[in-house]
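Show me any protein, fold above all:
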Amino acid sequence: MANIARRFVPLFDRVLVQRAAAETKSKGGIMIPEKSLGKILHAEVLAVGPGARTQTGEIVPISVSVGDMVLLPEYGGTKVELDDKEFHIFRDSDILGKFNN
């Protein structure tokens, strides 16, 4: 993952994330079919842009950093494929929250 973050830098206030893998097994050990799996709403931040610019040209810093676990909206973002892996790009303002470690 670190290799991708070095090669791809989002522009402005955009953030590159990779959604967490869906659990295919329940706590009791029952296999869950793919159709029953919901959308995974948390992801790890892999790369961030420099930030948005105000009308005066000042840069507004992004509220998340690389390595943060974030909560995403159910819909939105742009899906991209890099090195045969699926990633999503969201605006900083679209991210709903950040998990504390």
